[in-house]
Amino acid sequence: MSCHQFENMHSRREFLQKTGLGLGAGAMAHLLGGCASSSVADDPHINGLAGLPHFAPKAKRVICLFQSGGPSHLDLYDPKPELERQFDKDLPDSIRRGQRITGMVASQTRLACQPSRYKFTRHGQSGTELSELLPHIGGIADDICLVRSMHTEAINHDPAITFFQTGSQLPGRPSMGAWTDYGLGRMNDNLPSFVVLISVNKEKSGQGLLARLWGSGFLPSAHQGVQFRGAGEPVLYLRDPDGLTRDQRKAMLEGVNELNRINLAQAGDPEISARISQAEMAYRMQASVPELMDLKGESKTVMDSYGPDVNTPGSFARNALLARRLAEKGVRFIQLYHRDWDHHGSLQDLLPKMSRDVDQPAAALVKDLKQRGMLDDTLVIWGGEFGRTPYAQGGANREKYGRDHHGKAYSIWMAGGGIKPGTSFGSTDDFGFNTQDNPVHVHDLQATILHCLGINHERLTYRFQGRQFRLTDVHGRVVRDILA
Amino acid sequence: MANRCTLIAGGTAPRAVLLLLILVSALSAEEIRFNRDIRPILSENCFFCHGQDPKHREAKLRLDVRAEALLEHDSGFAIVPTHPEKSEIIKRLLTHNPDDQMPPPASNRKVTPAQIELIKRWISQGAPYEKHWAFIPPEKAPSPALTDRTWARQPFDRFVLAKLDAEKLKPSAEAKPGVWLRRASLDLTGLPPTPADIALFERDALRHGEAAYASAAERLLASPRFGERLAQDWLDVARYADTHGFNNDSGRTMWRWRDYVIESFNANLPFDRFVTEQLAGDLLPKPTLDQRIATAFNRNHVINSEGGIIEEEYRVEYVADRVRTASTALLGLTTECARCHDHKFDPITQKDYYRFFAFFNNVLEYGEDGRIANAVPLLVTPTREQQAKLKEMDAAIAALDARLDRLVADTHGQAALRQQIAADDTKLQARLMKPLLPDPKKPDPKLIPGARVTAKDSDIDAKRGTTLSLWFKAGAGNTSDVPLLVALDRSGSPAATSYGNGRELRLCDGELEWTTSQKHPAYATIVRTVGAKITPGEWHQVAVLIQGKENAASISLFLDGEELPTHIRHDGLSGAPGKRDWFLGNDGKSPPFIGDIGEFRTYASILKPEQVREAFSLQASGKSPNHSAELAAYRRRTASTQKLQVERDTRWAERLAFARNLPTTMVMEELPVPRQAFVLNRGQYDAHGDKVAAGVPEDLIAPWPADAPKNRLGLARWFLQPRHPLTARVVVNRFWAQLFGIGLVKSVEDFGTQGEWPSHPEVLDTLARDFVDGGWNVKGFFKSIILSSTYRQTSDASPELYARDPENRLLARGPRVRLPAEIIRDQALSIAGLLTRKIGGPSVRPYQPAGIYEGIVVGADYPSTKWIEDKGEDLYRRSLYTFWKRTVPHPAMLTFDSPDREFCSARRSRTNTPLQTLVLWNETGYLEASRKLGERMLKEGGADDASRTAYAFQLATGRAPTVNETRVLVRSLAKLRADFTARPDDAAKVIKVGASVPDSTLSAVELAAAAGVANMILTLDETITKN
After folding, report:
1. CA–CA separation, A130 vs A77, rounded Å?
2. Using CB atoms, which residue from A198, A220, A275 is nearest to B856?
3. What is the pLDDT of residues B110-151, one digit of tens each?
4. CA distance, residue A253 to nearest chain B CA (Å)
5. Co-location of B39 and B179 in the same domain
6. Which positions 14-73 of B are in contact with A (Cβ < 8 Å)?
């Protein structure tokens, strides 16, 4: 054996893998995660990587309420009285500073300042200013940390969403949830560790989402998010065909396992015992997932707190409640998507509707977690891929207007899981165009999320095509000021 | 890190050295070789700061080049050959002082004690460097001495055995003939052999030995399934998909390229030609249609149609994607890092990257395109059947024309004709639909170039259709591209979303070109005539028939009364343009038309071909006395020729309609003048650095062939020159991985200094050398491997061997690998008797759970935003034909590790998850296959449970079950039967699955029970594994 291979054989991964194999079929049955084949993905993603978490985590799990399309920070989170004074005046060059704008307004002869038509008021002890469109989030103002100085690099949806979720504008990198699953492994025996819930739009509109947003990139595909669906089967292919009983499925499973064991004795490949244990988990998931999706056990008070939409499968409200249930069951990363925030025009009609969809359920989720004592170790994130321009797309108008994409400054909020509650962090200039104090780049946010999970973002790496990759590329710094 | 910038002496740590001795003793048997043993350590730990990138170089120390590594620095010599104790590098590796320690503690890198010991021994031996192994052309190694002279069948087997000898291992026994046949069939055709095939082969093998194997191999290689099987992996590398990707992700048609790939593998096209045609088919002398289709390889990348993106940013991305794909597929190098900075590990500079980039930078393409259909440039690409049909149609029309011409020549003289024409002219105005323009009550506006006609007079209506017609006479001095009729807004920035909105008719290179555009040119229909005969100085009539959505298929162009075939230049119109005034002969930007234009008319209907011809011949009267076209046309509608003419018109219309609906393919087309390429600072599309010309890293990899042109064709020659160190190695290594589940170089996509050392360098080099010297013979290559002793070993092995060598890097056993997603499904369809055998053609949509797209795909109604399940045989096509939507790939395929094909992928992961079990249990296709297999059990499997279950088991695994296995199968069948007997309604429900109807001659209870057992069999590890 060559020296190089010798070194390989003693790598941590190889060691773990070999240890796993050495345990035999019985022990394997208890290792319940997906098990990568030894030949390609030498990866111990059953229990996460050795040495992780790097330090004691504040958050055990993450619920990311992703708002796709670019919610307007200027109409929701970041009040700008100056825009009122500048109504229909050109955005000063001193503010724009030659920054690039999208092709959609490239032909506009002027960029006219557009104030928000919505009132902002202070909420809670913290006095956080929020738009009238978010009364319920106002009610949790003292639980959240509002970051008004987010900024990103992309100005179009696809690259910007991909950047937020994977740390790169281009496809091919693992998503945050996949990194987390890869690094930390699983906390439960019956459910996947990275679950995706997507709101079903009432109107058929909105920017497309992409499976890559919860994909595993170059990590083994077992780390990709599993979508739980509001309508139809909650997990694809979960339900046995009509007419087949649970007892029959069990008998068939046992028969197959017995045959697989006979084959294992002959062939010797430990992959077969992994397949046996995966089949057993599949069988268990057939019971655990429907149980999870069944809301009968939820009290009326709780149901009501999420708002009337909670009764509609596939709604954001329903998914928010499911997110809490998943969190309770030990799912590590719960990723929600709610889309259609892309208000180039008719913002006055669309934004209130979108806000109504999410305002109450998002606030209810935070309160619900808090009530159950889970907020302390659950990190909740609300935000989109970018914000919107302080100038109008089309002409400025007091009542009816639209805004284009804007990545230079926008707002998100976080709650629980090691984040300082009742604070706002960072600021933008008088126009809400540029960040001013304490800018937070998307990579900084990602570094901070990993930090809350006990991961040093610089040390969670994966070697691919001869390079060590990480979620934050070669950037990102933990925003310590917002940590509790 | 400033405190580490100078080398200072640090203390050694004797304890660490002592500790190592035990570990190292195991290694001392072998010579140290720089490439295999030392370079990986330096590359991983040192080159990041002490490699070839000058911008990141610390302490001016460079360790990747020997001459530099031996230079004196402030604090001494990093490496002193033969003197490890004087070498600073060793001191730095051993010290515990965090200020001096290397690699720095913060770098998250670590050199193990065993590795330090290796470096010491290497320095003791004089610290010899080698060029990175993969950059040295492969040579055949001398044949090794072996313990067993009878085992090897192929030359490369000898090296495998030599390695086993060195490891004190024996090869595994030969697999049984039936096992080999199943393995080889799955590898070469992607389908399992039938039990009858196996029985026959077993007899053959007994009787004829090796010859039986050779002829079985020949048979498999000759199967048209071979091309389908080989195509599958190439489709991953070439990132083939049926949609454009990004968040609109609408449909595209590229399946003609997939056909090309399948056909090429089946025809055993030498691999160098296969690659040349794909890289540069368009640049070959007189390229065939197939060779131009092949270039779609470089257009398979994702294309973004999101409104408002910056064109250049994405155009640059597409070029970079081509670089990435070509580098990964052929060089096995990741050049991507050098896009932003000099490569840290491999000696590829940023300038090298952009010189390579320049080869792929010369396509007339746009960053934003492909919202509705294929992006430009594209080509009409009829299938072989369609080509034959076209030929047939043309021949029939030519025969009719010949007959007509004879008749026309016989008719009466010109003077009489002209009188007749004049008389008919007045009648015509009444008979034709009322023209919108000119207003019959007003005199014709004087139509001169530059004149303007208001839009409302020429309303274009999608529902009722519109016909435009005008006459023109081109003068001297026109440029090759002039406007005839323009209502297209070219004001403002071409980057703006509404740029180029409108319609226009132009005269381009002697042809008529019509454009309807929402945003020029990405969202536009652009069609151009083929074979227009336009004579300067003579009057010609043009008629444009516009109907429906104004896509390419709904525009017809007539010249002088005859409809002409059109060439689709772009077919991506995404909505109707706004109304605009017409300008005659002038677009306000390019040089205006020189000549006369007259009789611009708009008809509020689609004229029939004979009406257009009639209008032409009547209006033509007197325009050019010497012009005989109108006379001929008129004659053609006279009584004596009418019947023939009607038939001719019908045939011609059919032919044009047929041609309009032919599939297109996005292809490569070189700009006449190459686009200037630049180094892009930090990889930013708009941060132009130095100008660069196309070129390759010659010193590093291989010289440029002396007489090769500096374009993609020359590049192909560079890749495929016999002494290229990488191309053949990379290709044969990927083929090897297809068969063994893992490459000889495990990192099939990375042969660079960070990649893995080959497990068997001599095997790789022998195979690469033979592949090139034997004429890049793909079938020959596969034949040699599947007949080898290495491949023919059994994969059954002891747990100890699996534990010692989990990945089978030593090749002490045969391959045992879970099948790829496509083949698991194809095999199930095949053994259920459902598989459709048709090869090639458009992608199909088999079963997919309802609502998969819901909440994910874009809200707009773009093509391919809905999954409409196919019917009949298309439900059962091989999986490589399954419609591939990039943002939402088929979930069952994804679950079994198929990539999303957003970009080049040379290696799939192979996972083992509960979701895979669920797919096999409950996916409609597998359930239907289970029931069909159940039917086969009952009808073909004999009379009793044992023989029926054995029959299905054998279909799936290629072998008879053992007694114990039969016991389990029979018991399961009995249990299910008893259950369903008690619940016959459930039995009826269970068998109702899929589009096919259960065989009503069979008892529902029996069939439900058999289907259950069949499903168990399809779920077996052995079934979904090639062993």
Report:
1. 5
2. A198
3. 888 889 999 999 999 889 888 889 999 999 989 998 889 899
4. 8
5. no
6. 26-27, 30, 32, 36-37, 40
Domain membership flag for residue B387: no
How far apart CA B1027 and CA B1018 sit, in angstroms, is 15
**Residue-wise pLDDT tens digits, B888-902:** 999 999 899 998 898
B904 vs A contacts (CB less than 8 Å): none
Indicate yes or no: CB of A21 within 8 angstroms of CB of B742: no
User: pLDDT digit string (tens) for B154-182?
Assistant: 999 999 999 999 999 999 999 999 999 99
Total domains in chain B come to 5
Q: Give the dihedral of Cα atoms A367, A373, A374, A376; nearest 10 deg.
A: 90
Q: State the virtual CA torsion across A374, A379, A385, A390 in degrees, nearest 10.
A: 80
Residue B444 included in any domain: yes
CA atoms within 13 A on the CB side of B554: 18
What's the CA gap between B1023 and A97, in Å, rounded?
Answer: 63
Question: What amino acid occupies position A178?
Answer: A
Residue B401, in any domain of the structure = no
How many Å separate Cα B35 from the centre of its chain? Answer: 34
B955 with B808, same domain?
no
In this structure, what token pair is assigned to residue A322?
Answer: 């499911």
Same domain, B577 and B599: yes
Strands (E), B880-938: none
CA pair distance A130, A382, nearest whole angstrom: 14
3-state SS of chain B: helix, strand, coil percent to 5? Answer: 45, 10, 45
User: Hey, what CATH topology would domain A49-231+313-482 get?
Assistant: Alkaline Phosphatase, subunit A (3.40.720)
CB distance B984 to B901 below 8 Å: no
Instruction: Looking at the structure, tell me whether residues B153 and B40 fall in a common domain.
Output: no
Q: Quote the CA–CA distance of B149 and B357 in Å, as a whole number.
A: 50
Query: Is B855 in contact with A200 (Cβ distance < 8 A)?
Result: yes
What are the structural domain ranges in chain A?
49-231+313-482, 239-307
For residue B606, give its domain range: 412-637
In terms of Cα–Cα distance, which of B248, B241, B156 is closest to B884? B241
pTM of the model: 0.84
Per the structure block, which two tokens stand in for B414? 């010109």
**Mean pLDDT of chain B, nearest integer:** 88
Q: Is A300 exposed, middle or buried (0-12, 13-18, 19+ CB in 10 A)?
A: exposed
Give the C-alpha separation, B320 to B335, whole Å.
10
Of B587, B611, B637, the residue that ends a domain is B637
Per-residue pLDDT band for A14 (boundaries 50, 70, 90) equals very low
Nearest CA in chain A to B993: A241
Chain B residues whose beta carbon lies within 8 Å of the beta carbon of residue A389? none
Q: Which of B587, B605, B637 is the last residue of a domain?
A: B637
DSSP H or E stretch at residue A411: strand A410-415
**Is the same domain home to B161 and B66?**
no
List CB contacts of B873: < 8 A, sequence separation 6 or more. Answer: B836, B838
CATH number (domain holding residue B472) = 2.60.120.200
Backbone angles phi, psi at B294, to 5 degrees: -55, -30
Q: Dihedral, CA atoms, B843, B845, B851, B852, nearest 10 degrees?
A: -50
Task: Confirm or reject contact between B807 and chain A (CB < 8 A).
Answer: yes
Return the SS3 of B203: helix
Q: Tokens representing B1017?
A: 């069999």
Question: Count of residues for chain B?
Answer: 1027
Are residues B429 and B519 part of one domain? yes
Radius of gyration over every alpha carbon of chain A, rounded to an integer in angstroms: 24
Same domain, B529 and B627: yes
Cα gap B365→B570, rounded to integer Å: 11
Q: Given CA atoms B620, B623, B629, B630 in this order, what sign does their dihedral have?
A: positive
**Is residue B580 situated within a structural domain?**
yes
Report CB contact under 8 Å: A156, B742.
no
